[in-house]
Write a structure and sequence with these properties.
Rossmann fold; alpha/beta; 3 domains; about 20% strand; 10 helices
C-alpha cells in the first residue's frame, strides 16, 4: 500500500503527441498536495500517479489518494482510498447513489465551496468547508522586482475601464497551456511548470487582474494584490468573497484598481495543513494492514470462480430422467444460489417444465426467479395436499436431514425429489 497523487490535467500514462490543454490551476493543486506529502516525509518519487479518467479502472497497488478537485465523477476503483480534502461537485443529479455511498464511507468530506458542503449535509454525509489547498502556499517576501501588472485571462469587457497607469509595465498571461506530453516533459514536467509560474508571480507581480480561480487563490496565499473579475458569479468562487471583492460586469465601473494585498493568515494555512496531514495519515494507518494482507492473499485472475453451486448432480439427474417435451411441475426447498442457477438451467433447456413454488422461511430479495410463488415457510410446515405432485429440489443446506425424514415419512419415492448436496466419498463406498 502506498500514497497516490492525482494528476488531473487530462494526460494519461500512455503519453502521446496529441495537443492537450493544461490548466495551471490543476498543476497548482498537484503542487499543494505534493507539499503536504513533503511535510509528512513522503518522497514524491514514491508517489503513485493516478489519472482522472482511469480511476474506475485502476488496478495497481492500493493507494491513499487526496482529492482536491472539481469532480466530474466519483467512480473509483476499490483499490483507491480517497481522502476528500477539497471537493467541488456540480449539480446533484450528476451523482448516483453509489457516488454518495462512497462519499459517506470516506467522510468527512472537505469541500471547496459552500454549495457542495450543504448538498452533502442534506444527504446525511459529514462535510466541512475547507476551501482549496492552493491557499496554503507560503507568503512571498517583498522584492524590488515586483513591479509588473499581470493580466491573467481577464474578462474582455474590462478593457475600457483599465486605468492608463496600470499599462506602464504589464504582461498578458494565461493559465491555459496547449501542448503535447512531449512538450510538457521538455519543460521539465508538471511540477517544474507549476513552480515556474509561482516563481513568476512571487518575483514580478505587483498586481494580478484575473478571471481564474486558482490565480486568485495563489495571490491570496502569496500576499499579492488581486482583482477578481468574472462574467458570472459561479458558485465555486463563493468562499473567495470572504477575502476579496468579486466583480461582475455590472460592477466594472466601480472596480478598485489599487487594491491592498490580502494574505490568508499563517494560522489559517496551518490549520488547513494540519487537517490535511492528519486525514491522509489516519486513512493510511486505518487501511494499511488490511490492504497489505489483502494484496498478499488476492489472486490476479479469479474469473473462473463463481457462487457456490451444489446443483451439478441435479443437472445430471435432470438430463438423464426428464424429457424436454414433458410437462413437469417442480419446486425448490430453499431460496439459494443453487436453486437460482438450477432454475436458469431448467428454464433454458426444458421449456415444458414449470417452477411452481419456492419454499423458504427467509425469502431473500436478491434471489430472483423467472416464475414461481414464494412460500415464506419451510416445506415441512406445509401440508402436502396440492404439492404432492411437485418434483422437489432440496437446495438449502440446513434442510437435507429434515427433507429426508419428511419424504420417508410421506413414503415419497426417490424419483419425486432430489437432494442438491455435495457428494462426498465415505468409507462405506471407498474401493481400495
Amino acid at each position: 500500500m502506498n500514497y497516490g497523487i492525482l494528476t488531473h490535467i487530462g494526460f494519461s500514462k500512455k503519453g502521446g503527441k496529441q495537443n492537450r490543454i493544461i490548466s495551471i490551476g490543476d498543476v497548482l493543486e498537484c503542487l499543494a498536495i505534493r507539499n503536504i506529502y513533503q511535510s509528512i516525509g513522503v518522497d514524491e518519487n514514491e508517489l503513485i500517479t493516478c489519472y482522472p479518467y482511469e480511476l474506475n479502472e485502476y488496478q495497481g497497488e492500493y493507494c491513499v489518494l487526496p482529492i482536491n478537485v472539481y469532480a466530474l465523477n466519483i467512480d473509483y476503483s476499490n483499490r483507491i482510498l480517497p481522502v476528500f480534502l477539497g471537493l467541488t461537485l456540480g449539480g446533484a443529479n450528476k451523482y448516483s447513489k453509489e457516488n454518495m455511498d462512497l462519499l459517506r464511507r470516506f467522510s468527512p468530506v472537505g469541500c471547496r465551496d459552500e454549495r457542495t458542503m450543504r448538498m452533502l449535509l442534506a444527504q446525511g454525509i459529514d462535510a466541512y468547508m475547507q476551501g482549496c489547498l492552493v491557499a496554503t502556499f507560503p507568503k512571498r517576501p517583498i522584492l524590488e522586482t515586483q513591479r509588473k501588472v499581470f493580466f491573467t485571462d481577464p474578462e474582455a469587457g474590462i478593457q475600457k475601464y483599465i486605468p492608463k497607469e496600470l499599462l506602464s509595465d504589464y504582461e498578458f498571461f494565461s493559465h491555459d497551456y496547449y501542448m503535447t506530453d512531449e512538450e510538457l516533459y521538455k519543460e521539465g514536467g508538471l511540477y517544474q511548470l507549476g513552480e515556474r509560474i509561482i516563481e513568476k508571480y512571487k518575483t514580478e507581480a505587483r498586481l494580478v487582474i484575473t478571471s481564474k480561480y486558482h490565480a486568485a487563490i495563489t495571490c491570496l496565499a502569496l500576499g499579492i494584490p488581486v482583482i477578481m473579475i468574472i462574467e458570472n458569479n459561479y458558485f465555486k468562487y463563493s468562499w473567495l468573497e470572504k477575502y476579496i471583492p468579486i466583480y461582475e460586469p455590472k460592477d466594472y465601473p466601480n472596480i478598485d484598481w489599487n487594491p491592498k494585498p490580502v494574505c490568508i493568515h499563517d494560522s489559517e494555512k496551518e490549520l488547513m495543513l494540519n487537517i490535511a496531514r492528519k486525514r491522509i495519515k489516519d486513512t493510511y494507518e486505518k487501511y494499511h494492514d488490511i490492504c497489505t494482507l489483502s494484496e498478499i492473499r488476492e489472486r490476479p485472475e479469479i474469473a473462473h470462480f463463481d457462487d457456490i453451486f451444489y446443483g451439478n448432480y441435479a443437472i445430471e439427474y435432470v438430463k438423464e430422467n426428464w424429457k424436454k417435451d414433458t410437462r413437469i411441475d417442480y419446486a425448490f426447498w430453499g431460496a439459494t444460489a443453487t436453486s437460482r442457477k438450477l432454475n436458469d438451467f431448467i428454464a433454458e433447456h426444458y421449456p415444458e417444465a414449470r417452477l411452481k413454488k419456492v419454499f423458504d422461511w427467509s425469502v431473500r430479495s436478491e434471489v430472483e426467479y423467472k416464475e414461481g410463488i414464494f412460500i415464506p415457510e419451510p416445506l415441512e410446515h406445509i401440508s402436502f395436499g396440492e404439492n404432492k405432485d411437485l418434483f422437489i429440489f432440496v437446495t438449502g443446506n440446513s434442510a437435507f436431514e429434515a427433507a429426508s425424514d419428511l419424504f420417508q415419512k410421506l413414503n415419497r419415492s426417490p424419483g419425486t425429489y432430489f437432494l442438491c448436496r455435495r457428494q462426498v466419498l465415505t468409507e462405506e463406498n471407498f474401493v481400495r
